[in-house]
Amino acid sequence: MINKVTKTTSLRLLQISKIHSNFAQTQAMVENFRSLHSRLDDIEYLMQEDGLRNLGNSPFSFCSDGQTCETRCQIFSRSTAN
Question: What is the largest CA-CA distance in the chain?
């Protein structure tokens, strides 16, 4: 009888431990989602500060000095080719 109670108690403790672990992981995930908006705002600010208006290598993306990124890449390619 004591062995059966001990086994049942151990299984119950393992279940509670797993539930607690899952809950802690869920809390961390929820906090990450909550802070995502703030982190995206920070990234957007940094990109604007660097003068990037669009993502990618669009010829219409302007660098901080007003040149298009395409022009900047061409100038860089010529200077590194020498």
Answer: 86
Q: Per the structure block, which two tokens stand in for 60?
A: 């219409």
pLDDT digits (tens, 9 = 90+) for 38-48: 888 888 888 87
DSSP lists the bridge partners of residue 68 as 62
3 state SS for the chain: CHHHHHHHHHHHHHHHHHHHHHHHHHHHHHHHHHHHHHHHHHHHHHHHHCCCCCCCCCCCCECCCCCEHHHHHHHHHHHHHC
> Using 50, 70 and 90 to split pLDDT, how confident is the model at 12?
very high
Q: Name every residue whose Cβ is closer than 8 Å to that of residue 67 and which is 6 or more positions away in sequence.
A: 75
